[in-house]
Amino acid sequence: MKNFGIIGVAGYIAPRHLKAIKDTGNNLVVALDKSDTVGIMDSFFPECSFYNEYERFDRYVEKIKNTKNKVDYLSVCTPNYLHDSHIRFGLRVGADVICEKPLVLNTWNIDALQEMEKQTGKKVYNILQLRLHPTIIEWKKKIENGDKNKVYDVSLTYITSRGKWYYTSWKGHVEKSGGVATNIGVHFYDMLSWIFGSVKENIVHVSTHDRVAGFLGFEKARVRYFLSINSDTLPKEAKIAGKKTYRKIECEGEQIEFSDGFTELHTESYKNILAGKGFGLSEARSCIEIVSDIRNAVPTGLVGDYHPLAKLPLAPHPFKN
Fold this sequence. Notes:
Elements: E1 3-7, H1 14-23, E2 27-32, E3 49-51, H2 54-63, E4 73-76, H3 83-92, E5 96-99, H4 107-120, E6 124-126, H5 134-144, E7 152-160, H6 165-168, H7 174-177, H8 180-196, E8 199-207, E9 211-218, E10 221-228, H9 236-240, E11 245-251, E12 254-255, H10 265-274, H11 281-296
Parallel strand pairs: 1-2, 1-4, 2-3, 4-5, 5-6, 7-10
Antiparallel strand pairs: 7-11, 8-9, 9-10, 11-12
Helix pairs in contact: 1-10, 3-4, 4-11, 5-8, 8-11
């Protein structure tokens, strides 16, 4: 049984990590969050020590460092811009680190973390759960066993509605979240690069506070994508059905259906990591490079091979009218 620590235990994604730690037969010894709304811990690890001040958390982790309760793994579930710092903390205290996506915001952060891995002898793992989804695995096999010279046409549409709170929170600030592409799209870009190879072309057609649309040319695919957090961009059929989320991936006109099967993927990720088969820094590099390039690109407008939804009228920022 391994001992875990977690930073960001009050966050949205933390329950999946708590469940994964428990389901893999391990123990959570210490947790940190500036918010103390953490009653969920009663359902998983009621005996876990909890701190809402980083300094006291740091002191406790150091205190138990040479005891049987030392932290073997640190799970990082904090806002995107803090990942790099919190990963470094874990490595410095002698723990392997499991970090939510996006691993970091820029590729140079990965370079520095690789140096820290060498210095500490510890490993950093990223949650890239779509690589473990049965449908995605089958899709990858189909491409690998198909025509070696074929370049596939792929369309990605992902709309996940967010309210005004989003823009007030850290997620609405590009310097903290990385923007829409990073915040809601990084796992899709990872999946696409895992299946279709390295990126040859990265063109951004539209990039605003609530959406991003562009074209990605991979070794084996031409991908048009549209990502949005604005409910007004939902297709008519989704609105009629009262849905707040719309996800569609098509390859050569055939829909790739993977709406189900997500619930246990964090636990599967933990199982792989604990077995020494997790996804490390090098595996995360491609998707971080993609989102970093998208963030820093100058949008071209509606020219070239763009996603049909890129033509939708743009919306004003809710707090910048």
